[in-house]
Specification:
Layout: H1 2-17, H2 23-42, H3 52-76, H4 89-102, H5 112-116, E1 119-123, H6 124-130, H7 144-171, H8 180-210, H9 216-221, E2 223-227, H10 239-257, H11 263-270, E3 298-302, E4 306-309, H12 310-319, E5 334-337, E6 346-347
C-alpha cells in the first residue's frame, strides 16, 4: 500500500509539472519571426539582372497590340464618312491606351507584352525600404499613386502633346509673320521636345548599361520591371522571324536574277517538258504569240509561217540568234511580211 501511494504521488507530481500539449506549438510560433529575421539579416542582397531584350520586346509587343486594336476599331467606322476618324485619331489612341492601362496595370496585372515576356512592375521604393530580399524578385506591385501618375503620363501626356503639336502646326505658329508671343510658344515647344529626346537618349544609354528603367516614366516613378515567375523561360518563337528572313532573302535573289533571264529562252527550254504540247497551237492563229495582240504589221516566221508582229519577231530574233517559234518550237531562219511572195525574204540577222 505504501508503495502504491508513493507511485501515485510521484505520477501526480510529474503530471502537474509537465507542459501543456500546445506549449511547443505556441513557442514555435512566437520564435519563428525572430528566427526568420535573423536568417534574412545574414543573407546578402541578391543582385538580379532582367534581360534587356525581354523588356524591349515587351514594349514593342504592347505597341503592336495597340496597333491591332486600333485597326479593328478603324474597321468599325469604315462605312462612315471618309476622313471623319482621322481628325479624332489622338482621342482614339488615348482611349485604347487607357483600356490597356485599366485592365492591366490598374488591377495589378501585367500588360500584354509584359505578360508574354514574364515581366511585372515592382515598386522599387518599397524594396529599398525593406533592405533585404531573398530571391531578388519579391516586392509589392505599384502603389495607387504610381498607377495614376503612370496613366497621366502615358495616356494624358501623349494625348495632350499630340493635340498641341497638331494645333500649332494647323495655326502655323512657326511662320515668321506670326506674333512674337506665338513664335515664342513655338520655340518653347521645340526646345521641350529636344530636351525630352535628349533625356530619353541618355536614359536608353543608362538602361543598356544597368538594365533598369527602359523609359523616363518608369525611372521617375521608380517602377521597375522584374520577372513574374523565377522558373519561367522566355517563351518566344522565332519561327515567324525565320520565315520572314528567308522570304526577304529569296525575294532579293529573285530581284537580282529576273532581269538577267530571257523569258523566251525559258519558255522554249521548258516547252518540251510540258504535258500539253499542242496548247500553243490551239490559240488564235491571227494573234501574235508574243504580245497576244492583233499584229499591226504582220510578219511570218519561216519556215513555219506563223504570224507575228514585226517588232516582236525582229527584237526576239536580234536578241537570240537561235530563236524558236513560240507556237511550234521550230527554229526561225527568216522572216517574211504577210502577203509578200516568198522570193522577198528578209533574212534573220
Amino acid at each position: 500500500m505504501e508503495r502504491q501511494q508513493t507511485l501515485a504521488s510521484s505520477s501526480s507530481s510529474s503530471s502537474s509539472s509537465s507542459p501543456a500539449e500546445d506549449a511547443w506549438v505556441d513557442s514555435y510560433l512566437k520564435l519563428l519571426p525572430q528566427w526568420q529575421s535573423l536568417t534574412s539579416s545574414n543573407q546578402p542582397v541578391i543582385p538580379i539582372a532582367i534581360s534587356r531584350v525581354n523588356q524591349v520586346d515587351a514594349g514593342r509587343l504592347d505597341i503592336e497590340m495597340s496597333a491591332m486594336l486600333k485597326e479593328q476599331m478603324v474597321k468599325v467606322f469604315s462605312l462612315m464618312k471618309p476622313g471623319m476618324l482621322f481628325q479624332y485619331e489622338p482621342e482614339l489612341d488615348a482611349f485604347l491606351q487607357f483600356l490597356i492601362w485599366r485592365f492591366s496595370i490598374w488591377v495589378d496585372k501585367p500588360t500584354p507584352g509584359n505578360g508574354l515576356m514574364n515581366l511585372r512592375y515592382r515598386d522599387e521604393r518599397a524594396i529599398e525600404a525593406r533592405g533585404k530580399v531573398r530571391t531578388g524578385l519579391e516586392g509589392p506591385g505599384l502603389a495607387v499613386s504610381q498607377k495614376i501618375w503612370y496613366c497621366v503620363a502615358t495616356v494624358g501626356g501623349q494625348y495632350l502633346w499630340a493635340r498641341l503639336q497638331s494645333f500649332s502646326a494647323f495655326r502655323r505658329w512657326g511662320d515668321s509673320d506670326q506674333r512674337s508671343l506665338v513664335r515664342r510658344g513655338w520655340f518653347l515647344l521645340q526646345r521641350v521636345e529636344g530636351l525630352y529626346r535628349a533625356a530619353s537618349f541618355v536614359n536608353v544609354l543608362v538602361f543598356l548599361y544597368s538594365g533598369r528603367y527602359r523609359c523616363l516614366i518608369e525611372r521617375l516613378l521608380r517602377a521597375r520591371l522584374v520577372y513574374g515567375s523565377p522558373n519561367m523561360n522566355r517563351a518566344v518563337s522565332f519561327e515567324y522571324m525565320n520565315r520572314q528572313l528567308v522570304w526577304n532573302e529569296f525575294s532579293e535573289m529573285l530581284l537580282l536574277l529576273l532581269p538577267l533571264l530571257n523569258s523566251s529562252s525559258m519558255k522554249s527550254f521548258l516547252r518540251p517538258f510540258s504535258k500539253d504540247k499542242s496548247s500553243s497551237s490551239a490559240g488564235d492563229e491571227n494573234l501574235c504569240p508574243i504580245c497576244q495582240a492583233n499584229p499591226s504589221i504582220p510578219f511570218l516566221a519561216l519556215p513555219c509561217q506563223h504570224r507575228y508582229c514585226y517588232y516582236c519577231l525582229r527584237t526576239r530574233c536580234s536578241a537570240a540568234p537561235s530563236f524558236r517559234c513560240s507556237r511550234c518550237n521550230e527554229p526561225v531562219v527568216a522572216m517574211q511580211r504577210h502577203g509578200v511572195p516568198v522570193d522577198n525574204l528578209a533574212q534573220k540577222q
